Each structure stands twice: as C-alpha cells, then as structure tokens.
What does this fold into?
Amino acid sequence: MDGATTRTPGLELAPAARGTTLATWPKAICRALDAAGCDVPSLLAQAGLDQEILNEPNGRCRFEQGVALWHCAVAATGDPAFGLKVASHIKHTSFYALSYGLSASSTLKDAFERLRLYCHVVSDAVEYQFVRRGSEYHFVIHAAAGVPHESIDAALASCLRMCRSFVGHGYSPLRIELRRPRPTRIEDFESILRSPLYFECTRNCMVFDCASIERLLDGANPELARHNDAIALQYLARIERGNIQARVREVLMRHLERGEPSQEDVAALLSVSARTLQRRLAHSGCTYMDLLDNTRHTLALTYLSAPEHSLSDITCLLGFSACSSFTRAFRRWTGLSPSAWRAQGIGTHQPPETLGCLLA
It folds into this structure.
C-alpha cells in the first residue's frame, strides 16, 4: 500500500549523527552477507571497516563506515529486502546490557520504553519515540540524515522479531508506515513483516494495539532488567563523553555515596566553572537538579531490587542525609515508600519522565 500519513504533532527529527555504532550491528550485516554468498572481507575493505573491530564485543565503528557498509551490501546483493534479513542475524547478546534488559522486560510497553531510553547503546544516529495515541501505541524511529532505508528496515524488523519472541510467532502490529519508496519487489516485505504496509509516508513507525502491548510477559524479570539498565547507563556515560548530561550523570553515579554533590562540586570535577556547567545543561534542555533527581530515581530502583541493600544503605548510596529524605523523594517518584515498593515486588519499569532527555 502507498500513501502519506499525517505527521503526528510533537514528533521531531533526530539530531545529526554523533558518530558511532556498536560493532555488533555491522557484524550482523556481515552474517547476512555471508548467508547471501557475498565476499565479506572485500566488502568490509570497501567500507573502510577493520575486521578486528567487529570481533570486539563492545567495539564501536564510525557512523560513516556503517553507512558505507550498508551501501556496499545492498549493491552486492541487489536485494531490496536485505535490511529485513539482517534482523534474523542479530543474536540475543548483540546489544550489550540492553539485550538482556529487553529480554527481562515485564511487558512490550516496558521493552519499548527501555529501547527508547537506551537506544544509543546501539547507535547515536537514531532516536526512538513510544507514545500512546488513543487505543494505539506508536513506535517511531527518527533517523539522522544519511541513515539508509535498509538500516531502518533492519531496526523495525529487529523490534518485530523481539515482539514475536516474547508473545508468539504470529504476532504483528496493526500497521507499519515507512518513509522509504515502495521497493521493486515487495514479496519479502509482506512475508517477513506480515502487517499492512504503507510506503512513502512522513515517518517510520509501527502501530500496535494497547492490549497486547500492556499484557504481562511470561519471561518478566524486573530485578534482572533493572540491573542491566544500570549497566547500560554506565556504558552510555562512558561512550558519550561529549554529552554534558552523560558526563554529569557519570560524576553523580561515582560520587553520590559520599554525599550529595553540589553543582559547584560537579563543575570542579569536570574542570569547568559552575556558570559554564549551568549554561551547557540549559542548552541541552536539562538542569542540574533534573539530573540529580533522575539519577537518584534510576539508581534507587536498582538498589531496591537487590535484597542485600538495606534502606539505610540505599539512603547513603544515593547521597541523602537521612532516611526520611530518601522516603519523601521516593514517594514523589513512585507514590509509595521504599519499603512498600520493595515489599510489593513492583516490577513495571517506570523511568522518570525526563530521563529521555539525559540520553538525547
């Protein structure tokens, strides 16, 4: 099917690519090329990619190298559905801690929210948006300029494979909207995606019904999911050194257990003035108190999932001066006291509303 859909208000295009992609993504492309009978070493050389980088579990390649590999792959295979087929070569360990967090999610909603928050683990050339629109959920991919259509195809197909692995092979979204032109051969798109397809749209989006997205999954393991969220956050802080928000978050995660650091303290640790730090954070769309509050919220959920941490321990680890201060903050975040949250074993992943801006 063809036809442009109306652009949903509030959706913004992704910023320009910041430059890196987890090496396991081009490695999946190489597996698909090998399955297609292509000369993988030759294509890697054409794309300027070193095989050694692909063998490093947490290695990253430059954005332009990944784009070049996509172009070489599509030219070599002549397959308009090549991106969709790459998705079947992604392994359950491909995306670092994010893969494990997704696998342990409580619902598909939980998984898509987790993917939205931590997508830069895989690539900083895309942003995801996951919103409810009436009786539907919309999962939208915003890609930086230069991202090939086939890369978007692979991302959508990967997400759909994730859904089917959780709820059953027959699962499909209500519809899929793609910005790409209608392919010359559509059969593989229809057989792999198994959903009403619309090409030449104004966005890349999968639309789901609410009931299936909110249904509890059999493999839910909230504690495991949150532990991997913390690992993903630490990884993002390391790789996004040029992101002032990520740099502040990294300092907070290292220093909170010594007491609540002031904005001046953090600025000094980052070798900038407090005024410069304030200006840079304002330019990025957050304040220091936003970052402090959301870092504490995220860490609190992780610590409370670990029974070896007492409430007094967690109070100290989060830099609060008294348990009462921690309790008031936690009630503001969740509506419950820390002890009640832990006693009820609440598992739904509920990140702070502003956390998305921390990873942008």
